Amino acid sequence: MKKIISEFLDLVKERNAHEPEFLQAVEEVAETVIPYIVKHDIYYGKNVLLRMVEPERLISFRVCWVDDNGEIQVNRGYRIQMNSAIGPYKGGLRFHPTVNASILKFLAFEQVFKNSLTTLPMGGGKGGSDFNPKGKSDNEIMRFCHAFMSELFRHIGPNTDIPAGDIGVGQREIGFLFGMYRKLRNEFTGVLTGKGMTWGGSLIRPEATGYGTVYFAENMLKTKNDSFEGKTIVISGSGNVAQYAAEKSIQLGAKVVTLSDSSGYIYDEEGIDNEKLTFIMHLKNEKRGRISEYLEAYPNAKFTKGKTPWHEKCDIALPCATQNELNGDDAKVLLSNGCMCVSEGANMPSTKEAITEFHKAKILFAPGKASNAGGVATSGLEMTQNSLRYKWTREEVDKKLKEIMGDIHQSCIDYGTDEDGYIDYVKGANIAGFVKVADAMLAQGVV
Ligand code: NDP
Q1: pLDDT (0 to 100) of residue 243
Q2: Would you give the DSSP letter of residue 169?
Q3: How far is Cα of residue 5 from the mean position of the Cα atoms in its chain?
């Protein structure tokens, strides 16, 4: 088996040299899915996984815009249309200086499995730009978004490819992107998700990824007859996903003690309650400030510069910032401090070494493609509402989100339970995600 996996990975490496994040994501899937393929004749010998690691289309384009000083700026835009076997491409846009083809290919590849897990008919894609929104004025953000969409619009559409937000792309950016799309196409369609509530957005979509990450963890805890009540939670990030993961954790009776950004993390021993979280939401979403400014309002907290929060004692860890933010050594510290559950809100935040540690210790560990799928699932619900020209209530959407997270959890149990009863959520998510897409690809022939 090892030989088959390594031959496959060698081929992928040869074709995608210099794309470490993409290779990391493929390796994690190959190690769990290839043994399954080998045991199932319908998939064996048909190069299904080899077809899945090759994007159906990779679009790269120039984005020129003028900054507030009248200088012409040039960025690179991308859209990776990875797989549309079960539905139109769907996945976020990331604006961050680190964005490159490797990062977007890893995200698009993960998205294919994640979208399949949601039970909704959505293929996988991802896009973005190396544009850095930090420190830019609203007008600069608008000019960039308009320039970006003036090329992207010809590659997307409500039945072709439906982008959403990701790091650096929130409701403000979705608004500017949607405005330009609507003007160029002269049509009002559900081409983007994460829209504002008065122009086609779905209730609960802003909360969905964070809430879903916590719902998934709740499902995991239930397998141990446990809950969030009274637990200490360490969260990284302070953006969209982190904020709502914190909100739901607080609602469920847990104590959230950390949040972070790329400059460091805050630790509040007394717990970040609703009032403090409202302060953080205003600080990050309106003022666009730094997490260290929390101490100006709450001086009893501490700020640790340039570090991640994994060395703080907790029962549950929710990594909600970015890829590879939690390494093997961090995992060892978390475990030695008694952490018993990790639910990934971000995409691929744990390194391979960290996952190995979690599995060795047999704690509850959920990979992002399962635990953070609530965001895209609710985007799927936004698409449905747009098609129906109808709007569900907050309660209706939240109920559907909870059900979907429960279904994803059940799929992980179905495909990932080891002989000793341990639920390997990585294996479960990868195989369950693979089966649906592979079946559709086989049914549609070699295209
Ligand atoms: P936001 O842009 O709202 O927030 C990102 C947060 O992560 C910020 O606090 C940011 O800090 C921090 N961060 C970003 N890069 C780094 C870094 N290199 N090191 C340390 N901290 C960093 O993004 P989201 O909350 O939307 O996304 C967070 C994660 O969740 C990403 O992995 C994303 O792919 C994933 N995700 C998001 C979904 C969504 O619906 N939004 C859906 C599914 C997954 P700073 O402000 O300093 O940059």
Answers
A1: 98
A2: B
A3: 26
Report which ligand 1 atom has the smallest distance to the Cα of 107.
34
What is the C-alpha separation between 383 and 302, in angstroms, rounded? 42
Contact indicator for 257, 267 with CB cutoff of 8 Å: yes
pLDDT of residue 123: 98
Please give the distance of CA 178 from its chain centroid, rounded to a whole number.
21
**What would the pLDDT profile of 264-282 be if each residue is shown by its tens digit?**
999 999 999 999 999 999 9
Measured from the CB, is residue 241 less than 6 Å from ligand 1?
A: yes
Q: How far, in Å, CA of 288 to CA of 135, rounded?
A: 9
Long-range contacts of 45-51 (CB under 8 A, 24+ apart): 46/442, 48/438, 48/441, 48/442, 49/8, 49/434, 50/8, 50/11, 50/12, 51/441
Among residues 363, 353, 367, the alpha carbon closest in space to that of 425 is found at 367
pLDDT along the chain (447 residues), means of 10: 96 96 97 97 96 98 98 98 98 98 97 97 98 97 98 98 97 98 97 97 98 98 98 98 98 98 97 98 96 98 98 98 98 98 98 98 98 98 97 98 98 98 98 98 97
Tokens 């479960």, located at residue:
428
For 371-412, the DSSP string reads HTTHHHHHHHHHHHHHHHT----HHHHHHHHHHHHHHHHHHH
- Please tell me the residue having the least CA distance from ligand 1 atom 33: 346
Total residues found in the chain within this entry: 447
Helix/strand number for the chain, H first, E second: 16, 12
Considering the entire predicted model, what is its pTM? 0.97
User: pLDDT of 346-380, one tens digit each?
Assistant: 999 999 999 999 999 999 999 999 999 999 999 99
CB burial string 260-280: b at 16+ within 10 A, e below:
bbeebbbbbeeebeeebbebb
> Does residue 3 have an active-site annotation?
no
Cα-Cα-Cα-Cα dihedral sign, residues 29, 108, 161, 55: negative
Question: How many Cβ atoms sit within 10 Å of the Cβ of residue 362?
Answer: 14
For 390, counting Cβ atoms within 10 Å of its Cβ (0-12 exposed, 13-18 middle, 19+ buried), the class is: exposed
Any ligand 1 atom below 6 A from CB of 312:
no
Q: How far is the CA of 209 from the centre of ligand 1 (A)?
A: 11
